[in-house]
Write a structure and sequence with these properties.
Shape: elongated
Organism: Mortierella hygrophila
Protein name: CsbD-like domain-containing protein
Coiled coil: 94-121
Number of helices: 4
Distance between the termini: 19 Å
Region (Disordered): 33-55, 124-149
Biased composition (Basic and acidic residues): 34-55
Helix content: over 70%
Strand content: under 5%
Number of domains: 1
């Protein structure tokens, strides 16, 4: 969450520098602000993409292990192989627990997105910046969907 808040803060600090520089006629400050804002946005998009790729990878691994574990358990029970059945049950249980943890992480990211959305919407209201308000609404929708995992 620290990186997300840091990136969000840098986006708004950069935007403020850009606006102040443009308003007061300081092109160097405006350019520095635009750069800071852009870098923070890029860093956040990269972090979000990495987190999503990890989530998908873990979900695929957990689903595979759950199915394989369930199959081992069923085969073991059918053939009277208690060791195989126990191994399968443990593998399935572990995979299901790991998926519950992954779901909780996704829900936590949803809460982060909802907090970020509120900040964007407040900044958009304060600065009368329609695009920031829209971005906040989009981020809020993303967060709401993530929290419903």
């Amino acid at each position: 969450m620290t990186d997300r808040l840091s990136n969000t803060a840098n986006q708004y600090i950069g935007a403020a520098k850009q606006t102040i520089g443009q308003t007061l006629g300081y092109p160097d400050i405006a350019a520095d602000g635009a750069r800071q804002k852009s870098e923070a946005e890029t860093a956040q998009k990269a972090a979000d993409a990495k987190a999503e790729a990890e989530r998908l990878k873990h979900t695929a691994e957990n689903n595979t292990n759950s199915v394989v574990g369930g199959a081992k358990q069923a085969i073991g029970q059918t053939l009277g192989l208690s060791g195989l059945a126990a191994e399968g049950a443990a593998q399935k249980s572990s995979a299901d627990t790991q998926q519950n943890i992954e779901d909780a992480r996704t829900q936590a990211r949803g809460t982060e997105h909802e907090l970020e959305a509120k900040i964007k919407q407040m900044v958009g209201d304060l600065t009368n910046d329609h695009s920031t308000k829209v971005d906040g609404a989009t981020t809020e929708t993303q967060g709401t969907l993530e929290r419903k995992v």
